[in-house]
Amino acid sequence: MRMKAAAAAVMTAALVCASPGAELVRRDEAGAAIFVLTAPVQPGGEAIEVAPGGVAWTENLRPQSAVRLMVDAPARNGPGRTVGPAAGSVLFGYAMQHGGESFCPFGPPGSERVQCYRDFDADGDFDGAYVSIPLRRDYVLRVGRLTRLSPVRQLAFEVVAADAMPSVSAALTFDEWRGGEARFSLRAADERIGEYVCERAEGGACTLLGLTLRVEATERGGARIAVLAAEPERQLRLDFT
């Protein structure tokens, strides 16, 4: 019992006092996740005409990094009861604001919180757990800020290819023209992921989410959109604050 107590004390000190980089580890921290956009948008195709509020096309979002949990994670109390992911669950990478990476599951519909995990000593086992502060109850991707870091028994995981996690469909909507710029939003189910301006580029083109577009105004505030070029890997950063 003494050995177990001593080990727990050492783990607690390691988690909430100092990181391998000798910086203090924060029990509450924001961060971001990088998603790859994998919609098969082909340059040189026919232009798309869309009215304000209309869907231009559907994007597929997949996390840039992912791991698979090898064991069941326990539920946690405080605040409330937050269930842990089951063995086999795939978690996406959450880049911590002050360095390091945690891994979180997509929130099930209607969930208020999820548990996210971090491997502090890089041994292939999670040894710290956070609880998310939800941005809104129906959010799936934007899990929110992480809080209440505490030690957990070692939870084994393995790194997997990002395509091991199902992609999330998100509709790219043309919203409006404002100040001569085309404005868009991205929405997954009822979750508004973000608002974006097609940034002006050379030759009358503009850039949006890794795409070079030509966007022209049509009647009644609509837009005609042609895809001119696409980056090899298009990325989307979601900030959790």
Please, how many helices?
Answer: 1
Query: How much of the sequence is in beta strands?
Result: over 45%
End-to-end Cα distance: 40 Å
Tell me about the largest β-sheet.
6 strands, antiparallel, barrel
Q: Uncertain segments of ≥5 residues (pLDDT<50)? A: 1-11, 16-22
| Number of DSSP strand runs | 19
Helix content: under 10%
Q: How many structural domains in the coordinates?
A: 2
Descriptive notes:
- The chain is mostly beta strands.
- The chain folds into 2 domains: 26-32 and 63-164, no CATH class; 35-60 and 166-234, no CATH class.
- 6% of the residues lie in helices and 50% in strands.
- It contains 1 helix and 19 strands.
- The protein has one helix at residues 2-16, and strands at residues 31-37, 48-50, 55-63, 66-69, 76-77, 81-82, 90-96, 101-104, 115-118, 125-133, 145-160, 168-178, 181-188, 191-197, 199-200, 206-208, 211-217, 223-230, 234-240.
- Strands 4-7-8-9-10-11 form a 6-stranded antiparallel beta barrel. Strands 2-18-17-16-15 form a 5-stranded antiparallel β-sheet, with no helix packed on it.
- Mean pLDDT is 85; it is low at 1-11 and 16-22.
